[in-house]
Design a protein that fits this description.
mainly alpha; about 100 residues
Length: about 100
Amino acid sequence: MQSLSRPLIRASASTPLLLRSLTTTPSTMSAGDTGAPKARGFLAEKDQFQRREAAQEAMYIRQQEMEKIERLRRKMKESQKHMDELDKHLEEYAKSQGGEQN
C-alpha cells in the first residue's frame, strides 16, 4: 500500500506549479444567506436580516400570548361574576327555607 501511494505523492510534489490544476472552491451561499458579512461573537450564526426576522416573530408570538391571557382574564371575570350570582341565589334560597335566622 505504501509503495502505491508514494509514487503518487512524488508525482504531485515533483510537477511544476504551472502544470498543477487549480482547485479553488467558489464562495457559495447557503439557504437564507443574504450576502452580508459574517458577524462575530454573540450572534455569529445570524445576519442582520435574520435577527430582525427572529425579533419580529418573537414579538408576534408575545402579542398572541398577551391576547390569549387577556381573553382568559375576561373569561375568569365572567365566571367569577356568575359564581357570585349563584352564591347570592343560594343565600336567598337558604333564607327562604328558614335555614338562617336574621
